[in-house]
Each structure stands twice: as structure tokens, then as C-alpha cells.
């Protein structure tokens, strides 16, 4: 028997839930939890070579790549060093889930066009404040992502024969 009081969603909302469920930060949330983010998912369009954000910018929004390709770079001695390129279904700017953080990388559009859903940090924090399970699940995923980054740093250090001083990582 169907529950007449159960929340129902439109086909468009279901499509958004499927999209969100493929993004690591949202992968542990159910549709009802994801639905809280929908009113705050603003569509933004960018052109080729446009900057999405720069390293050290305040981290005030989460960017969910809908279409296009983005280059992630780091600036070293007045030049940009390419780290990787990412495509649709990736979250950028995850550090916005933490208070008072800055961007760690630069993000530039390399495809002809790119489309994002952008969720402002204030809206994310409002959802977190009223939904501790959502906050816990998303921060657990963020911790896993950061743990994987750390693991990759150690692997790179080992394979580069100590090309850089790893103790600098722990000095801040």
C-alpha cells in the first residue's frame, strides 16, 4: 500500500538526484536529504579560458560540474602548473564545507563551455545546522577525499626519491 503522506518528486528532481548521487559528497545521502539542496543549486555558465576560482580565494561555494572540462592548476613561481583535468560529475571547491577556508587550487575552463550547479556555503551551513546526519555524512566523505589526497602525496614523495622535504607538510 502506498503512503499518501510520503513526499513525491518530479521527474526533473529525480534526474537531479541521480546526478547528485554520482558525486562523492552526495553519494551517501538519500533523495529526501538531497532535496534540501535543490533550492540552492544555481546554474552558472562559463566560457573557455574563464576562471572558475583562483587559489587562495575565499571558499564560499561548492561547484558541481554539469558539462564541460576544467583544468585544475597550482601557481608556482609566477606560472601555472597543470595538475589534472576533470569532467562532468565532479565537485570542485569541497573546502567550502569547512569554515574560514581558502581555495587550494585554481580552476579554469578548458572546454568551449562549462556549466555548473553552484551551492553557496551559507546555504550548505544552514542545511548542516538543521540536519546533523547530512553534515556528518558529507564531512565523512570529505575526510575520505582528503585522506586519499594525503596518501597520494606520500606515494608521490616515495616515487620521487624524496624530491621535496616532506617535513614541510607538517610545519604548516
How would you characterize the overall build of this protein?
34% of the residues lie in helices and 26% in strands. Helix 3 (121-130) crosses helix 4. The strands form two sheets. The protein has a four-stranded antiparallel beta sheet. With 172 residues, the protein is an alpha+beta fold. It contains five helices and eight strands; from the N terminus they run ααββββββββααα. The longest helix has 28 residues, at 132-159. The protein has a single domain (11-171), classed as Jelly Rolls. The model has no long low-confidence stretch (mean pLDDT 91). It has helices at residues 11-21, 31-35, 121-130, 132-159, 167-171; strands at 42-47, 51-53, 61-67, 70-76, 79-86, 91-92, 106-109, 113-120. Strand 4 and strand 5 form a beta hairpin.
**Integer average pLDDT:** 91
Unreliable segments of 5+ consecutive residues = none
What CATH first level would be assigned? Mainly Beta
Distance between the termini: 58 Å
Protein name: Cyclic nucleotide-binding domain-containing protein
Domain Cyclic nucleotide-binding: 25-145
Pfam families: cNMP_binding
Organism: Fulvivirga sediminis
Amino acid at each position: 500500500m502506498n503512503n499518501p503522506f510520503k513526499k513525491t518528486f518530479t521527474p526533473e528532481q529525480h534526474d537531479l538526484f541521480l546526478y547528485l548521487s554520482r558525486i562523492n559528497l552526495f553519494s551517501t545521502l538519500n533523495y529526501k536529504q538531497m532535496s534540501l539542496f535543490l533550492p540552492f543549486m544555481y546554474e552558472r555558465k562559463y566560457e573557455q579560458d574563464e576562471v572558475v576560482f583562483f587559489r587562495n580565494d575565499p571558499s564560499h561555494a561548492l561547484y558541481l560540474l554539469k558539462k564541460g572540462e576544467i583544468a585544475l592548476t597550482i601557481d608556482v613561481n609566477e606560472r601555472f602548473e597543470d595538475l589534472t583535468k576533470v569532467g562532468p560529475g565532479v565537485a570542485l571547491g569541497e573546502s567550502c564545507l569547512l569554515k574560514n577556508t581558502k581555495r587550494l587550487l585554481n580552476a579554469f575552463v578548458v572546454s568551449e563551455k562549462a556549466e555548473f550547479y553552484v551551492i553557496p556555503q551559507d546555504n550548505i551551513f544552514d542545511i548542516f545546522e538543521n540536519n546533523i546526519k547530512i553534515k556528518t555524512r558529507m564531512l565523512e566523505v570529505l575526510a575520505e577525499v582528503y585522506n586519499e589526497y594525503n596518501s597520494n602525496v606520500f606515494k608521490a614523495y616515495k616515487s620521487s626519491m624524496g624530491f621535496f622535504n616532506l617535513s614541510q607538510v607538517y610545519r604548516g
